Amino acid sequence: MYAFKKFKCPDYNSNLGLFLSAIILLKPSFADNINGESFPSNFIFGASTSAYQIEGAWNEDGKGEGVWDHITHVSNISIADRSSGDVACDSYHKVDEDIAMLKHLGVDYYRFSIAWSRIVPNGNVSQGVNLPGVMYYLRLLEKLERENISAMVTIFHYDLPQALSFPTMFIDENYNSLYVDYARLAFLLFGNKVKYWITFNEPQGVCTSFLEKYSTKPGTDSYTCTHNIIKCHAMTYWMYDSDFRDDQKGQVGIVLNTNWDEPASQDAKDIEAAKRKLLFEVGWYAHPLVFGDYPDEMKTRIRLYTFPWESSRLPKFTDEEKSLIKGTLDFIGLNHYSTSLVSDAPDPGLFRTYEKDLGILKTYDPSWEKTSLDWFYVVPFGLRKILNWLDETYKVPIIITENGYVEDGSPFLDDDRRINYYQTYLSNVLDAIYIDHVNVIGYFTWSLMDNWEWTSGYTQKFGLYYVNFSSPTRDRLPKKSVAYYKKVLKTRRLV
Ligand code: BGC
């Protein structure tokens, strides 16, 4: 859309005036591309973090070792700056400061996660609960409530207790009950202060990137891991439903990560590959949890790439399991950052992994704005497209649980590119709501503050607030985007 649609020309008499107004008329106007509607009054806004990325205090007050403590202490060669989250943002000691930042922003919700090994040091509830860890989350929830900020809590955000690890408990179904016991404990202790529960953050990351690297059976374990996580989710959902929902009145969902995948060409194979990517990433979880089984496309493709004398590497749900898992999402949490172009990959040969079953190649349009991460481009229309796809496919309310911009630390506080990112992505959320009638009910930024960004360590920053990681006091400072987000939340509009 160009400026002449809305721009009212000033009354110039001189030729210079005409010349200038002609230039203004032809120049694409940033503001004009932005949706001018207000966010619905019941739309919720928030900011997100996760325990390992911000808390620090990795071994204080009885906390058990988590898998990331272990990885970063035993061999940190896979971490860009060889760092760890031992101190991170020191949020364990800075609850008041974190809450003051949330309050300043004016968010309706704070999304944070519980570190399993902080409240259950070796992962098994029957072997002991750590009271100081419990008190930390109770205090956080109480203070949030006092400031009128509601809580969305992630039960599991990548940080498995080390005692249940290597490579992960989720490849053994016998361990599922440990997750469900832990979730029950979380509902019992904190549930009267939590409106939205997330069982798992991005389980596909747990079952692919992490697992495929360390497993001796890649291409089999990934599917087993997902199979068990789906059952853990469903058991937890029904447990909440029967034992807690009436009193606590919360909602239970899962968070899935998906960038949008645009076919790289109009070739039928590329169109098919882009669809396959969505089904292997989102459908792998959402199809079972909404419809009761894996997408047919996944079943057929994995069968095709399994040796004829073996049973498919994708496990099957029994009829009983299908009815257990079906209809267990009150909402879908969407973590969305970027978009890629997808084409069909040539046949990979005999060796099978999840990636090879998926069989795609990714590229990027050179006209898209690049960020400091090689997979991350700024493509605002991708958010609108994935919202539409989710809504059409699953018809379950959607909450955008993470969306945000990355940079490598420069510029320091003047993060205009982040403001541009939020403005254009949020505009696409409004388009999805008002033009496409998508049922999207909330938006959370990633992240409240710069934090420990997994294998990127402290080299990549997603925060609205800057954190000084060289200072022992981990001082926080607002970036320019704080004022921007605050204004959006106050006015509930973008322009
Ligand atoms: C994860 C966050 C992570 C963010 C940015 C999401 O996939 O849930 O923990 O920091 O992406 O990479």
Automatic annotation (TrEMBL):
One GO MF term: hydrolase activity, acting on glycosyl bonds
Key words of the record: Glycoprotein, Glycosidase, Hydrolase
Pfam families membership: Glyco_hydro_1 (PF00232)
Membrane-crossing residue ranges in chain numbering: none
Quaternary structure annotation from Swiss-Prot or TrEMBL: Homodimer.
UniProt record similarity statement: Belongs to the glycosyl hydrolase 1 family.
Protein name: Beta-glucosidase
